[in-house]
Specification:
Blueprint lengths: L1 H21 L4 E3 L2 E3 L11 H13 L1 H15 L24 E6 L2 E6 L2 E5 L6 E3 L2 E4 L17 E3 L10 H11 L2 E5 L3 H5 L6 E4 L4 E6 L2 E8 L20 E6 L2 E5 L8 H8 L5 E5 L17 H11 L3 E5 L12 H13 L1 H4 L3 E2 L7 E3 L4 E2 L4
């Protein structure tokens, strides 16, 4: 009987491995990572970069944009979407019910089944070392010092607005959380002092346990790229999205991504997704000029339809000023395209989470404002 049970278990494991291998895997060539065989875009081109830099330095509109950026940073209330930041909340230490708070950009606090998880935490400006690349135009919805004890952090990729050294170092010093990173990123977080590091490739699932409760964190595909402070690091580490799951609730965090076939594959692996945190910026009028590494507001809706998730929560907009396309335009275009696609979205929920407001998930009901 024991042999029969063992044989059945072995067959089940083999079947699951076969199922996972049937999904897309990252391409690794000469030590570099690619989304697929068709992913050949060269993100770093010095001649093009110098041309763009020169045109920006000489352009009156670029100077106007820089002055506007400083204005928003010095007076966040002038931000056209500042209404999204009605408060800076102090969340409860734990919650068994699933709750989310948008802290800004791609940073969310997820409280579920007694666990506290942060996605791509950043609470200040986008920095490289001591230098600010982009000023923050909207305060964080929760101050770093007001966070509850953090059990886990998930990192989508190693760009400075998603793998922020200041925030991660402070979080590790205070909470010593487990940090989940895509393959190749372990050395970066080790240098920040982390010791509880889990490095994953796509489709890997990890289980956290605490007080007889558990949570699954699954590394999933994304269509992006990587670089960390040096040309030699280009494409040498993987990027990903993540699924955070507990007690029959699945919350999807898209990270940074272009549109691709991975959304439909994720829907096959997770036929029930309660909430999807989807990037909607940068968004421009007309064609998406960033489409080889970022979905815009329109493609985010198409990706959400592929995912067949229940609730769309936009992110990656409004927090850092990079021109009009990072503030109100993504919101306007998302609203318009959502209405255009109503025949496919009648049963779905679009939640513009107020920065700093806690929401019950998947019931999508606001907690009372403190």
């Amino acid at each position: 009987m024991n042999k029969l049970v063992l044989k059945c278990c072995a067959l089940l494991i083999i079947a699951q491995m076969g199922e996972i291998s049937a999904y897309m895997q990252p391409i690794k060539r000469d030590g570099l990572y690619y989304y697929s065989e068709e992913d050949t875009h060269k993100h770093i081109d010095f001649q093009r970069a110098l041309t763009i830099l020169a045109s920006k330095m000489l352009s009156p509109s670029a100077w106007a944009k820089a002055m506007t950026s400083l204005f928003y940073a010095s007076d966040p209330k002038s931000n056209p979407i500042a209404f999204l930041n009605p408060m800076q909340m102090v969340p409860p230490k734990h919650s068994l019910e699933p709750k989310i708070v948008w802290i800004g950009h791609a940073t969310f606090l997820i409280q579920m089944n007694g666990f506290n998880v942060l996605t791509d935490p950043i609470f200040g400006d986008v920095k490289v070392g001591p230098f600010s690349l982009t000023k923050r135009g909207m305060p964080a919805g929760i101050r770093l010092e007001d966070l509850p004890p953090i059990d886990a952090i998930v990192i989508s990729h190693n760009h400075s607005d998603h793998m922020d050294t200041n925030a991660l170092t402070a979080l590790n010093t205070k909470y010593h959380p487990t940090i989940f990173v895509p393959e190749g990123n372990k050395p970066y977080v080790e240098a920040m002092g982390f010791t509880n590091i889990v490095e994953n490739t796509w489709w890997d699932t990890n289980t956290l346990t605490k007080d007889n409760r558990s949570m699954n964190i699954t590394c999933l595909p994304a269509y992006h790229w990587s670089i960390r402070f040096s040309l030699g690091s280009y494409r040498q580490s993987l990027w990903s999205s993540w699924m955070i799951s507990a007690e029959n609730t699945n919350i999807y965090f898209a990270g940074d991504t272009a549109y691709g076939k991975h959304f439909k594959e994720i829907a096959q692996r997770f036929p029930s997704i309660d909430m999807a945190f989807m990037p909607i910026g940068p968004t421009e009028e007309g064609e998406n000029t960033h489409k080889l590494y970022h979905i815009d507001a329109l493609e985010a809706v198409d990706a959400f339809i592929d995912l067949n998730a229940d609730c769309f929560v936009p992110m990656h907009y409004g927090t850092f000023f990079g021109g009009r396309n990072t503030l109100e335009l993504p919101v306007k275009r998302l609203h318009a395209y959502w209405e255009e696609k109503q025949d496919l979205l009648k049963s779905k929920i679009l939640l513009f989470a107020r920065c700093g407001q806690s929401y019950f998930a998947p019931r999508i009901k606001k907690e009372p404002t403190l």
